[in-house]
Amino acid sequence: MKNLHLYFATSTYGLEVETLLKETKCFCIDSLNALTYFALPKCIIALDTAMKMVYEISWVDAWDPAIERLILFDFLFDEIQLCAVFDSGKVLYIDPMNNQITEIASLPSPLLGGAWSPDLQALVLASSEMLFLVSREFEIISEENINPTSQGKDQLLTVGWGSRESQFQGAGTLKKREAADLDRMPSPLLHNDDRRVIVSWRADAQFFTVSSIMQTNESSEEATMESRRLRVWNRELELMSHCDWLSGIENVLTMRPQGNLIATTRISGSDRWVWLYERNGQYRSKFCLGPAKDSIVRNILWNSDSSVLSILFDTTETSQLHFWTVSNYEWAQKLVIQAPAKIIHGMWDLENNHCFHFITETGHYRCIYMERMYDVNNLLAINVNGNKLRVTDLPMAPIPPPMSHFELELPTSIIALCQSPEFLAVLFSDQSLSIYEVVDRKYKHKKSIQLPDLHNYNTLYNLQWIDDERISALCKADNYKIVEISLKNGDIKIVFSSTKPLIWHKFVGNDLGYIIQLTDGDFLSLLVGQEEAKPLEISGSIIQLKSVNCHKCWFLNEQKLLIALTRNHQLLINGNVVHSSIGSVSVSEDFVIVTTLTNILHCLPVKELKSLQAKDFDRFEGRVVERGSTIVTNESNGTRVWLQMPRGNLETIHPRALLIDQLQAHLNQLEFSTVLKEMRRHRVDMNLLYDNNPQLLLENVKTFVDQINDADLLNLFILSLCDEDTTTKIFAPFYMNHSLDKSWNEDKVNRICSSLVEYILSLNWDRLKNLYTSVLSCLVKMKPSKISEALSDIKVRYSSANSEGDILLREWLRHLSYLVDDRLLFNKALKTYDLHVALLVAEACDRDPKEYLPLLRDLQKISPPSYQQYHIDLKVDPPDLTSALSHLAEVEERFDETIQFIKKHRLYSKALAVFQNKPRYKDICRLCAENLLTAKRYEEAVLLFRKCEDWESVLKCHELGRNYKGYIEIATANTHTSKEDIAKTLERMALSFETTNDFATVAEIYRHLNIDKYYPRIIENFCKALHWTEALNVATAKNDIDQLRTAVDAHFNALLSLISNRKSEIEKHIKRLEIVRENKMKQIQQWIESEGDLDIAQSETMSEASTTVSNLSRISKLSTVSSRRRKNIDRKKKLLKEGSPYEDAAILAALKEIYLAIMKQQDELRTFLPTMVSLDMIDDARILQKEVISLFEFASQSMKSAWPKHIQLRSLIGPIYEIYRGDDGIVRMPSEEVMPSKIPLDDELIPPSFSCDSYWQMEILK
C-alpha cells in the first residue's frame, strides 16, 4: 500500500561541470567519502554531494578508447582505490588521493563482461567461451566453460518417474503435453542485443548469475542459432543450475540481493514481461511491463534491501526510469522518472537503499532520493499502480492491494501526488496536473491543468496543499526553490530560493508561513510576503535537529509542535530526541502513535509532548504488535488504528490509550450509554465507568439509568463491579495524573448498588418491571449478598402484580438462578420460611420434583410455626444451627429436645445468649457449667454455677482448680460447710501444691489453717521456696529460730560450693574454647597453603554422603536452605563434646547458661543476706558476699575472652567450610586470612547481659 515519493534530488543542472561530463562512459560511488567518480575518455572526475569537482585524474596514457572498451569501473572501498577493467584484459588501479595509475595485470581477452563480488574478494570475468574466477591479486583461481552441458548441483532431477512428458497430469492434458511450450524454447537474439555477458551477484557473495550467448539447434532444422540463457554459479565457480529457456529474452539481468530470485525481461507478442526464476533454475512468477513497442530495456536492478526494482527504458529520444515494488504477491509500478536525455549509466547507492544515481549522454548527473510512504488523508488510502490509483476507504473496510474500493484511471504515469481532506492533486510525467474532488468519499475528476515547461525546474517533489486554489512544491533548478502552483491556470510562482538543499516544507498559516527543512537538519520559517527565511523558533528556542534528512515531518500549529522521524529511526519533537528506535509514526490532533523496532505500539498524548523526555517515554503504555507491522494511519477523534502486516494485509486495532481517551470524553459529556456499549464491545473493565469520576456517576444515577434503559446492559455493568480502583491498577498508565479522594472507593460496590436500587425502585411499574432484574443483580452483588432480601422483595412484587405476575416471577427467579448457585438459592428461599417462595424457586432452578416436593410437604405438616422454622433451619445446607436453636427455644414444650440439641451440637455458648431473660435460663447455665466442669474449665464453670446458685458445685470447682482463696471465700460464706470439712479440703490442696514444688503456696495454706499448729511446716516451705523474709517473720513471731538457722546454714554451704563449681566450669570452658579457636586458625592456614586440601573427616558431610572427603570441592555445593540440615546443625551446637564441628558454639552456649544463672542468683541474695545478718551469721554473710563478688569479677574477666569486643576470624563459630560458604551454597576459600563476606549473627555470638548490681550488697558486710 506504500507509494514511492521523491523527497530530495541533486543534479548538475546549470553547473559548469555538466559540460565536462558529456563523454562519461560510466561512474562509481565512494559512499565512505561521499564522492562519485566519472570515467571519461581522457580523465576521471570526482564530484562531491554539492556537485563540486574534487579530483581530476588524467589517464590519456593508460587508456585509448579507440582500441579498448571499458567494461568495469569500480571503487574498492577497502583500499580506497579505483579499479578499471578493459575488454583487452588490462586492469588498472587508480589512486585518487595521490593521482597515480598502475597497471596491475593482464588477463585473457577479449572480455565481454564481469562483476566484482559484493565483498570485493573475487572478480568474475567472461569471454565468449570461458568464465574466469579471479582473486583479489588478479590471479585466475579457476575457469569454466561459460556454456556447460553438465547438470547443476541445485538442478531439479527426475528420479524413477521418467520425463515430465511421460507423467500423468490429469484428464484433458494430452494436447497440452503434445503442444510445445513456446515460452520455454530458445529463440534468436533480439536485434538490439549488444552480445554482452552479464554477471549479477547475490548480496552475500555466495552465488552469482550469468546471462550469456550460446549456439543452439532449432527444433525443426539442423541449422544453429544464437540464444541467451541464464545459469547460476557459486563462489567456487561450480555450476548450480541452468535456468529454463526463455523465448524473447533480453540482455538484462539482476539477482535479488536477499533471497533466491533472479529477474530478467522478455518480449512476448507485443508486451514486455519481467520473468522471475528461482536459484534452482525453475520459473517462479512474472508480471507485465506494458507494450514493448518503441522502447528498449537497458538495465534492471534491485536496490540493496530488495524492496524496489528499477527498470531503465530507452525510447527514441530519451530514457525513463520505472520503479516497481511488490506487496501481497502483486507487482506495482510506483514511480516513473523522465530523464532529460538518454541515460548512459544508472545504479543504486550501496549505503542508501532508496537513492538512485544516473547520468545522461548530455552530462546531466542526478541523484534522486525516494521513500516508501503511505498516502492517506481523511482515511482514504491511495495506492499507485502505474497509471491507476487504487483507493481504499479504510472505515468501510481495510482492503489491501491488489483489492480496492474503486480505481481511478489516469492518462499516464505519476510523478507525485498530494492530498487534502477535500481534494487530490496528481502530477503526471507529461507535465500535466489533475485535480480530483472528494464526493461521497470517492474521488471525482474536477479539472486538468497543463503546466508550463518544467525543464527549468528540473524535478518537482514534496507537493503540499496550501488551500483550495494553490499547491506548493520543492524543485531543483540552478538553486533549490519553493514554488507555488496555481490550480486555476497552472502558473508557477517562485516563493523562496536557496543554495542549500531543501528536503521538506509545509505552509502552516499566516503566523509562521512556510516551515522549511534543510538537509543539514536546520529548520527555517518563511513568513508570507517575505523573501528571507529566518531560523524557526518555537517557544523561544531555535529548532535544530540533531539528525539530518528528517523528511518525515509533521507540524501541529495549535500546539506548536514539530515532530520528525529520521532515517536512523529517531523520533524528535521540537528538536529533542525522545526515542531512538521508532519504526513508523502517525500523527493526529490528540495523539502521536508510534511503533518501535521492538514491535511495541505506543500512543503519545499531544498535550504531554512538549515536556516529554527520552527517559519518560516508557511510562506510556504500549501493546505488542506483529513483527514488521507498520502504521498506515489512525482515526482522528476516534479509536481505530490501521496497521499493515509484513505480508501486505491490513488490520484494524483499537489501542487502549485511544479508547480510554474517547471514553473519558464521552463520560465528561454524560454519554453513559455510548460508554457502556463501547466497553462491552472492546471488553474494557466496566469499573472504569465509576473509577474515572465516582462523584460524576453517583450524582447522575438518574441520567445513567435513563440513558441505558436496558436491563441486560445494566446487569453487565453491575456484575462486573469490584471494590478495586482500576485507575490505580490495570488502567494506571492512562491515569498517571489522576487524583481522587480515596473515600470514594470505600464500600464502592455497595454504594453504587444502593444508589441504583433506590432509583430503579422509585420508577413507575411499567419501567420497573423491565429493569427489575438489575435490582436483583444489585442485591446479589452487595456485600454481604442480600439474596434473602431479593427473594422477599420478589414475593412482595409478585403479590401486587396483575395477570402478568406469573410471567414476571419466572423471569425474575430465572435471573436469580443465573447469578446464584441453585442449591444456595433454594436454601435462601427456604430461609425466608415461606414454603410457597421455596416452591417457585425450585421450579425456576429446574430442580428434581422428587427431591423438593416431599421435603416441602413434610415441612408443611409441622406446627407450630417456630417448630417448623426450626426444621427448615436444619434442612438448609449447611444447617443453620444458631437459628434453629433460637426457633426451638420459642417452643416451651420442646425443652427436653432443646437440651439434647444443645448437647449434640455443642451449642452451649449460643444457648446462653438465646435463653437469656427466659424462664429456663438457670437450667441452661447449669447445663453449660457441667460441660465446662467436664472440660476442666473450672474458673468459667464457677461463674455459671454461681448464676444458678449451686454452691456445692462452686466449691468443687475451686477445689479441682486449686483456688484455695476462692474456696475459703465461698466455704466461709456458706453455713452448710463445716470447719472440719474446710480444713480437710485445704490439707488436700496443700499436698497437691507440694507435689508440684509450689512451696510458697503450701506455706500460705498452712498459715491460714493454724499458724500455731503448723509453723514448723510453714518455715520449712518458705525456706524451700527461698522466701527468707517470710520465714524469718514466722520464726521471729514464734520465737523459734533454730529451725531457720539450720536451713540458712545449709543453704549457705550449698551456695559456697555452687560458686566454686561455677568458677571451675567457666575456667574449664574458657581454656577449651581457646584451644578450639587456635586449632581452627591452624586449619585455615593449612587449607590456604595447600590450596584447599584439608582433613574434614569429622565434618557433617560424613553423615550426609557416607564417605570420607578431604577436598573443598566435594562439599562446596551443599544446600544452605535445607530445613533438615538446619535442624541437624542446631542439634550439634548443643553437643558439648571435644572434637565436634560445632564445639565452640556448644561451649559458648554453656557459658551463656552459667552467666544467666549467676545473674539470677542476685535476686535471692537480696533477701538471703539480711536473713543471715538477722540470725547473727555476720561473718558467714560477709564471706558469701565476698565470694559472690569474686565470682562476678572472674566471670566478667573471662567473658572478654569468650566474647571479644570486636569479632575476629577466630571468634566465628562452626567448621571453616561453613564460615566461608556463600548464599548459593558454594564454599569459596580466600587466598589469605580474611573475614568472610557475610557473617551470620548466631545466638552464640551475642554475649549475655551480665553485670554485678549493687542493690543486693550490704554495706555492713564490706
UniProtKB/TrEMBL annotation:
Known pathway: tRNA modification; 5-methoxycarbonylmethyl-2-thiouridine-tRNA biosynthesis
Tell where it localizes: Cytoplasm; Nucleus
GO (cellular component) term, any one: elongator holoenzyme complex
- In what residue span(s) does the ELP1 alpha-solenoid domain sit? 656-859
Report the main location listed first in the record: cytoplasm
Q: Name one GO biological process term.
A: tRNA wobble base 5-methoxycarbonylmethyl-2-thiouridinylation
GO function terms (MF aspect): tRNA binding
Under which name does UniProt file this protein? Elongator complex protein 1
